[in-house]
Automatic annotation (TrEMBL):
Catalytic function, reaction form: UMP + ATP = UDP + ADP
One term of GO molecular function: ATP binding
Sorted UniProt keywords: ATP-binding, Cytoplasm, Kinase, Nucleotide-binding, Pyrimidine biosynthesis, Transferase
Species: Roseimicrobium gellanilyticum
InterPro entries for this protein: AceGlu_kinase-like_sf, Asp/Glu/Uridylate_kinase, Uridylate_kinase, Uridylate_kinase_bac
Keyword Transmembrane helix in annotation: no
Known EC number: 2.7.4.22
Family in the record: Belongs to the UMP kinase family.
Recorded name of the encoding gene: pyrH
Protein name as it appears in the record: Uridylate kinase
Primary location group: cytoplasm
Subunit structure, interactors included: Homohexamer.
Pathway: Pyrimidine metabolism; CTP biosynthesis via de novo pathway; UDP from UMP (UMPK route): step 1/1
Length: 262
């Protein structure tokens, strides 16, 4: 094993890591927080921000896992419409741009809710920004009650605060509702030692510690989200939602993607 200079923090390469961490063949979840990237709702090459067939496919996968009694909460990003940081780099005031991003997540949340309900899955959307007539306000204890009653709860409008991301929202809400895990469905099939979109030789990890993810400054999730999960001992699984059935597989605990633990 290699250690980072004078820190005592172990540094693994991808292969070593897979062999030195405990076996994770049997992930067993009772309550999960699934984070869907906003981009994932868009069809590649299409002008539409939301593709109904893609959302329908996601809803089918969620339904399949839900039927087995799994309690499922969702956080949906807004990047298919708007990202605050991008707009701010082009001259817009950051806080306003971020509020617009949060509103984008509400549209995505309603799209996912609509598809789930079309499949007879009971749902509730709770918004971090008060929006009577569109969604319930976020009330933690009520969210937990919905989950106990078998409703899929969709947390919209991020944390309700600018300068945060929906990854951080996922970490926060997962901790609040005492979920077993954050499942981050994204464009890559796990966490690599560098960005695989930029480095074709990047090595994928099967498992990773929070400390390693933070020390290596791996950009697949923002550092605020990683450290919130670390503080609350909340495992994260990063997996690709580009394959047809991976959301269902991740939900039922199949060993896909990269798992990050203490
Ligand atoms: N070390 C890494 N491992 C995996 N992906 C990484 C890494 N560093 C950067 N990325 C990039 O992170 C992206 C996922 O993060 P992000 O775009 O914020 O996702 P999302 O929109 O799903 O929240 C991937 O598309 C990948 O290109
Ligand atoms: O608590 C939050 C969550 C989200 N956002 C804004 O909402 C946008 C959309 O969320 P995100 O980029 O996380 O979506 P994703 O990349 O997952 O689609 C962000 O860029 C931010 O501008 C925010 O300000 N506060």
């Amino acid at each position: 094993m290699i250690y980072l200079c004078n820190t005592g923090i172990p540094v693994f390469d991808g292969q070593n890591l897979a062999h030195t961490m405990p076996d994770d063949d049997k992930r067993k979840f009772k309550r999960v927080l699934l984070k869907l990237s906003g981009e994932a709702l868009r069809e590649v090459g299409s002008h539409d921000n939301i593709s109904p067939p893609i959302v329908e496919n996601i809803a089918h996968q969620i339904k399949a896992a839900h039927q087995n009694g799994l309690e499922i909460a969702l956080v949906v990003g807004g990047g298919n419409f708007w990202r605050g940081v991008t707009a701010s780099s082009r001259g817009m005031e950051r806080a306003t741009a971020d509020y617009m991003g949060m509103l984008a997540t509400v549209m995505n949340s309603l799209a996912v809710q609509s598809m789930l309900e079309a499949l007879d899955v009971p749902t509730r959307v709770q918004s971090a920004i008060k929006m009577d007539g569109v969604a319930e306000p976020f009330i933690r204890r009520r969210a937990m009650r919905h989950l106990e009653l078998g409703r899929v709860v969709i947390f919209a409008a991020g944390t309700g605060n600018p300068f945060f991301s929906t990854d951080t929202t996922a970490a926060l809400r997962a901790s609040e509702i005492a979920a077993d895990v954050v499942l981050k469905a994204t464009k890559v099939d796990g966490i690599y030692d560098s960005d695989p979109k930029k480095n074709p030789n990047a090595v994928r990890f099967d498992r990773l510690t929070f400390q390693e993810a933070l020390v290596r400054q791996l950009k697949v999730m923002d550092a605020t989200a990683f450290s919130l999960c670390q503080e609350n001992n909340m495992p994260i699984v990063v997996f690709s939602m580009n394959e047809p059935d991976t959301i269902r597989q991740a939900l039922i605990g199949e060993p896909i993607g990269t798992m990050v633990t203490a």
